[in-house]
Amino acid sequence: MSELNELEKTLVLAAAEADSGHQEPVEPAETKPEFYKNLTQPERTTSSPEPDTPSNPNPKKRTRDSLEDSPPAKCPSTYSNVIANHYNQLEEKGIQERFKSRIVYLRNFHNWIKSMLINEYLSKIKTNKKQYNAAIRVHDMCCGKGGDLSKWKKGGITHLICSDIASVSLEQCRARYEDIRNHSRDRQPLFTTEFIEGDCTRVRLREKYSDPSIGLDLVSCQFSFHYSFESLPQLECILRNAAECLQPGGYFIGTIPDAYELVARARKHGSQTYGNDVYEVSIDFDVHKPPLFGAKYNFQLDGVVNNCPEFLVYFPVLVKLAKKYGLRLVRADKFQDYFERMKEEGMHLLRNMRSLEGFPPPESCRLNGSEEDYEHAKEYVGKDSRRNVLVGTLSKSEWEVSSIYKTFAFEKMKRVSMKEDGTPIFEI
Ligand SMILES: C[S@@+](CC[C@H](N)C(=O)[O-])C[C@H]1O[C@@H](n2cnc3c(N)ncnc32)[C@H](O)[C@@H]1O
């Protein structure tokens, strides 16, 4: 059996072991037909609804010309400062420190997922460009400290807009970019950049672009989109930011926690708080009646105290509302399914990025987790008749975290006409 198959099998095994309760989708309480009606009939909705109680989006009749051109939604000031402060205060850890972390392979594995997702959609964009070497313009929305800069470099893009609410992270991103540029020995010039500090759930970012008429090919929002589900106006605002400068055929991609998974685990454990030695989720809403917006929970990873609230992303609402902004869902995959689909193509990168832990560990090394965390790998190796079989895996605890997440990709539709009231109509 090839090494490739071994890796696959072991990871699949880990997934099965860490079965996180694949249950029937959990329907939030407020999937009211009127709400959907309003989402499907843009002319009857408002771009600035009443500050919502999550269960009552309370749409009013729209007064502005078009959904895309309406002003940023007004929403109550709630958690944005808390979130910005949290990220501003995060310590910048060196590579050595990061490598000692209990969740080093989990972080690397998530980085691999992001790399594969970015490559997948950059490849589609390049294929669709008629002109060889055509410019590729990207917006890394909620870019953080610039963890994806090297991915953009490898992807050969032309221009990158980096935006984030946390000024300290954005400065670190800028410094990282300068560092890459100063150390770049490539003959090809590195992509150009612009950095925008702002809350993408409350501010129209286009007004801050150096060229507001820019046509973007890709908008990427990694591990951040869920912050927008605090309220309907915030979701509307981020969707408009994602969509309005995308060219038809361009993509909006990202990674988010899967609401079904978070709620199903709470129900399975019969508790608002659950987790293992590397993560803990504390849910702040009724898991039997989750609201559409503002379903707040706390996600703590690797024992780091975290008072930063996160919000459940109810995916069907995202898909419905995205259509209003001309975004059509292309696909969404749980991380384990995305891995299944991409593992062969990404096997080389998986190794290079050290995204899996070797089992059994080499003599001089210790396992990252406890012995029980590798029972699945032990069992697998034990069943193999060959001697000295080495497999790549994630510890069960880390896999339980990874299997919470999913990828998504939307494509920007062509705007074909406009209703009398200015509502755009997109090609389906
Ligand atoms: C988990 S980090 C992810 C950073 C980066 N995308 C990555 O994958 O490495 C989440 C980021 O989202 C940013 N963020 C959260 N809410 C935001 C908002 N409303 N507007 C802009 N950025 C936001 C945070 O400041 C933080 O940098």
From TrEMBL:
Domain MRNA cap 0 methyltransferase stretches: 101-413
Annotated Polar residues bias: 38-50
InterPro entries: mRNA_G-N7_MeTrfase_dom, mRNA_G-N7_MeTrfase_euk, RG7MT1, SAM-dependent_MTases_sf
Compositionally biased region (Basic and acidic residues): 19-35
Reactions catalysed, as given in the entry: a 5'-end (5'-triphosphoguanosine)-ribonucleoside in mRNA + S-adenosyl-L-methionine = a 5'-end (N(7)-methyl 5'-triphosphoguanosine)-ribonucleoside in mRNA + S-adenosyl-L-homocysteine
Pfam families, alphabetized: mRNA_G-N7_MeTrfase
Enzyme Commission number(s) from the entry: 2.1.1.56
A GO term, aspect molecular function: mRNA 5'-cap (guanine-N7-)-methyltransferase activity
Transmembrane segments: none
Keyword Amino-acid biosynthesis: no
Gene Ontology CC entries for this record: nucleus
Binding site for S-adenosyl-L-methionine: 114, 142, 164, 199, 222, 227
Gene3D superfamilies: Vaccinia Virus protein VP39
Region (Disordered): 1-78
Record key words, sorted: Methyltransferase, mRNA capping, mRNA processing, Nucleus, RNA-binding, S-adenosyl-L-methionine, Transferase
Localization in the cell: Nucleus
Entries under PANTHER family matching the protein: MRNA CAP GUANINE-N7 METHYLTRANSFERASE, MRNA GUANINE-7- METHYLTRANSFERASE
Family classification: Belongs to the class I-like SAM-binding methyltransferase superfamily. mRNA cap 0 methyltransferase family.
Protein name from the UniProt record: mRNA cap guanine-N(7) methyltransferase
Species of the source: Phyllotreta striolata (Striped flea beetle)
Higher taxonomy: Eukaryota, Metazoa, Ecdysozoa, Arthropoda, Hexapoda
